[in-house]
Write a structure and sequence with these properties.
Number of domains: 4
Structural class: alpha/beta
Number of helices: 20
Strand content: 5-15%
CATH class of the largest domain: Alpha Beta
Largest sheet: 5 strands, parallel
Strand order of the largest sheet: 2-1-3-4-5
Shape: flat
Number of strands: 14
Helix content: 40-55%
């Protein structure tokens, strides 16, 4: 539920905000600007409703201080009927919009929803521009599995061919598609993202290919489809395995001939579009089940790239967490600068069925729930990872062979196991293994020398042959 901070010096007005907005939003009320700032220090606020005429701090003074202190929270200023020039000044000072008293409740709710939608769109566009500007640098991680996928993607960026990106939901297929587009010769042309799983089946062809006026009931005007919008650029067909069979036939024709006809028209339109497709389904199984065209599969599977699940690239979790902390810490007004090594180890134990998307949402939720913590520790994860809240001696039993050893020998044996496991998981890259263990490379090297652990992976055993 989104949070509204309503600032007004009149108690009756604050009561109205609670009554009319409380069903849709989490409402916090403050009697003045200073009290409002106290809430901002401790609460994540999505939007502020600000009265202009207040004795302690006027609305304009509040807006000025808000921007000086670096808050980007959108503000709606409420002003009296004869204060339209003041409202204009408030917009110039950074308010997103204004409302004149007395106002209609429905008008207030519509305005709040519109400003929130604009803010979401603004944040998404900012993020996407940053990602596109960075190209492949926007993909966080250095694991071998991810490195292989990026290597194929770099080749795809140089060759203007159709790409099929496969992988589980949440692995970042859309991020890789944008990186391919941004690094290729069409980077200055449109990148059009089409989600095949969210479009109603009866509207897929209209959305993709457009329609003429009167083509079907409700087609009151001519409309260009996504294919035409992407002309010269890239069309990203996300979750193409969900596309209905009848639409697949028309897409196949477009891929083969480079032209299409909008619904209600027999006139073909030529387009120059680069296709990148993605799916979390096994398309060969879908072909066997009669749900996907085999000829279309071979048309889109020119250069296949598989995005690895997060459980196969656990060594990337610390870098991803740091990235998401930097992305969200200011948005949610959190104090945290980092996750402690212990907290990172707890995250590393989880299998992440939702992959990078689940990790991102988890980091954001942890920051919101622990805004005052400067470092996220294992006990901050207890609501999502109950094991993290338990004392160490309850989380794992001590192996029998260690219980029988003197403390010094048992400690050395356990350290050796942990170090060997970290080296294996990091591909024997010592800096990554040290980061996973929550220590420095120098300390890790000292321990390896002390425990006689080779810095090189063991040679594979030769299979013995009988004479």
């Amino acid at each position: 539920m989104q949070t509204i901070l309503a600032i007004d010096d009149e108690p009756s007005v604050r009561d109205v905000y609670h009554a009319v907005l409380g069903r849709r939003f989490h409402v916090i009320v403050a009697g003045g600007g200073q009290e409002g700032f106290e809430f901002l220090k401790n609460e994540h606020v999505d939007i502020i409703i600000l009265d202009h005429m207040m004795p302690e701090m006027t609305g304009l003074q509040f807006l000025e201080r808000l921007r000086k202190e670096g808050y980007a929270t959108p503000v709606i200023v409420v002003t009296a009927l004869n204060s339209v020039p003041v409202a204009v000044d408030a917009i110039k000072a950074g308010a997103r919009d204004y409302l004149i008293k007395p106002f209609d409740v429905d008008e207030l709710i519509i305005l709040i929803e519109r400003v929130l939608d604009e803010e979401r769109t603004r944040q998404e566009l900012t993020f996407l521009r940053e990602q596109e500007a960075r190209g492949f640098d926007s993909i966080i991680g250095a694991s071998g599995a991810l490195h292989e996928a990026i290597g194929f993607a770099r080749q795809a960026a140089e060759i203007d061919c159709t790409v099929l990106i496969t992988g589980e939901s949440g692995t970042g297929k859309d991020v890789l598609a944008r990186a391919i587009h941004s690094a290729g010769p069409r980077a200055d042309e449109p990148f059009v993202h089409v989600s095949c799983c969210t479009m109603p089946h009866n509207l897929v062809e209209s959305e993709l290919f457009g329609h003429e006026k009167g083509a079907f009931t409700g087609a009151n005007e001519r409309r260009h489809g996504k294919v035409q919008v992407a002309d010269g650029g890239t069309l990203f067909l996300d979750e193409i395995g969900e596309m209905p069979l009848e639409s697949q036939a028309k897409l196949l024709h477009l891929l083969q001939d480079g032209c299409f006809s909008p619904l209600g028209s027999a006139k073909p339109i030529d387009v120059d579009v680069r296709f990148i497709c993605a799916t979390n389904r096994n398309l060969k199984n879908a072909i066997a089940d009669g749900l996907f065209r085999e000829d279309l599969y071979y048309r889109i599977n020119v250069l296949p790239i598989e995005m690895p699940p997060l459980r196969d690239r656990r060594e990337d979790i610390p870098a991803l967490v740091n990235h998401f902390v930097a992305k969200y810490v200011n948005r949610v007004n959190a104090a945290a600068k980092e996750f402690s090594p212990g907290a990172l180890r707890e995250l590393n134990r989880y299998d992440w069925p939702g992959n990078v998307r689940e990790l991102e949402n988890t980091v954001q939720r942890i920051l919101i729930l622990n805004r005052d913590a400067e470092t996220i520790e294992p006990w901050h994860l207890k609501s999502m990872f109950p094991e993290a809240a338990r004392p160490v001696n309850e989380q794992e039993s001590v192996p029998d062979e260690l219980e029988r050893l003197p403390l010094e020998d048992a400690t050395a044996r356990l350290e050796e196991r942990l170090i060997r496991r970290a080296l294996e998981q990091s591909g024997y890259v010592q800096s990554k293994a040290a980061e996973q263990l929550g220590t420095t490379r120098r300390v890790l090297k000292y321990k390896m020398d002390q425990l006689n652990i080779s810095p090189e992976p063991p040679e594979p055993r030769q299979a013995s042959r009988s004479n």
